[in-house]
Amino acid sequence: MPELPLVLGGLTDKEMSTKTLLTALNHHGVGDDLLKVRKSKNTRAGVGKYRSTRYVMRKGPLVVFGDDSLAVKLAARNLPGVDTCHVNRLNVLQLAPGGHLGRFVIFTQDAFKGLNHVFGSHTKNSQQKSHYTLNRGVMNCADLARIINSDQVQSKLRETRTSVRAHDKTKKNPLTNSALRNRLDPFNKDRIAADKATAAAL
Predict the structure, then answer these.
(1) Which of 20, 25, 65, 174 is in Cβ range 3.0-4.6 Å of 30 for a Cys bridge?
(2) pTM
(3) Strands 6-8 and 55-56, how do they pair?
């Protein structure tokens, strides 16, 4: 997509067909999402397939329309996975189905202009919802990697601590390890040398 959110103009034709809407969506790069939805159709697992919902399919794009583009709702009925919603009836279940954020939302031009009327802005209250104001973002810059790697933040951080092992944690056997045996018994080295000298003399 060249930019988000995707706002489509020229969808105010009252005689719009499904073919016309599909052509417009494919022209703006939505064809990959529509293909993903069509390929995801599978049979429902378990005995739920005996009921009226035999097949399951992923959620596709959400098309938000306004009063001037009511024909979009009828044109998108036969597109698999594509849901439609009027701008005055937006809800969380459609914007984030299953609690998963990040659904691809497509606005018509009149619906995008009507968002300020429904939800208001940071300088003007909503005209449709009484006593409703938009929440202000806690962060002005959402690029966390840029903030963390900035010189201002990195200059205040301490250096990376590295732990150095003071001793070897592997326990050695002094009966088989001569270095450890000599450390425990300082006279062991002289005793071995004396034994070797005695053996050599005999």
Answers:
(1) 25
(2) 0.65
(3) unpaired
Q: Are residues 21 and 78 in the same domain?
A: yes
In this structure, is residue 92 part of a structural domain?
yes
Q: What does each C-alpha distance from 126 to 87, 93, 130 come to in angstroms? A: 14, 21, 7
- Print the domain residue range for 60: 6-132
Residue 1 pLDDT greater than 70, yes or no: no
- DSSP string covering the chain: --SSSEEE-S---TT--HHHHHHHHHHTT-HHHHHHHHHT-EEPSGGGGGSS--EE-----EEEE-GGGTHHHHHTTTSTT-EEEEGGG--HHHHSGGG-----EEEEHHHHHTHHHHH--SSS--SSSTT--PPPPS-S---HHHHHTSHHHHTTSPPPP----SS--SPP-TTT-HHHHHHH-TTHHHHHHHHHHHHHH-
**Cβ-Cβ contacts under 8 Å for 48 (sequence gap 6 or more):** none
Q: For residue 113, what pLDDT is reported?
A: 92
